Amino acid sequence: MKLKLCVSLLAVLLLSAVSPYAQENAPKVDVFAGYSYVQANPGVTGVDSFHLHGGNASVGYNLTSWLGGVADFGGYTNGNVLNTQTSGTFSTYLFGPRVSYRHDARITPFGQVLFGAVHANAAALGTPNTQNAFAMTAGGGVDYRLLDHFAIRPFQAEYLMTRFGEGTLGTRTQNNLRVSTGFFFRF
């Protein structure tokens, strides 16, 4: 099963790489900005999962028509900004590769795996201290080109793994979901 999946993915990448459309119309740089939602599952005893709303921005550089690198930055809050005792904030700083399938003139599906860091204040974690931790995302989305240099991203969905410390339990994995939508410019 895994071998079939790997062979299929390789075939898609090779077809995308040799497609005349892909070679001619892949932007060298794209800049994304949009709304982002995180379903945070802290896994800390006594702290239920919670919702964070905010935004993320990314800059992508396409090495080929199908392979590029991405720098992604996000900022989130639980919405209770005025009450600093319970206001949770969360920031991500992620970098990694993106694979795009550019076979259609308007629609470009993509997948990416990003690695980096996450910062959360004490209220976001239900702990007495702010923390910085390892973070990773894996997922993808679809871009829809409206004009030559302007496109929208109707959806992007990713698994977001964080590794915050949980008091006496030590560092543990938190399994989160991140969903984004927005627009981007293609250069």
UniProtKB/TrEMBL annotation:
<feature type="signal peptide">
    <location>
        <begin position="1"/>
        <end position="22"/>
    </location>
</feature>
<dbReference type="InterPro" id="IPR011250">
    <property type="entry name" value="OMP/PagP_B-barrel"/>
</dbReference>
<keyword id="KW-0732">Signal</keyword>
<feature type="domain" description="Outer membrane protein beta-barrel">
    <location>
        <begin position="9"/>
        <end position="177"/>
    </location>
</feature>
<protein>
    <submittedName>
        <fullName>Outer membrane beta-barrel protein</fullName>
    </submittedName>
</protein>
<dbReference type="Pfam" id="PF13505">
    <property type="entry name" value="OMP_b-brl"/>
</dbReference>
<dbReference type="InterPro" id="IPR027385">
    <property type="entry name" value="Beta-barrel_OMP"/>
</dbReference>
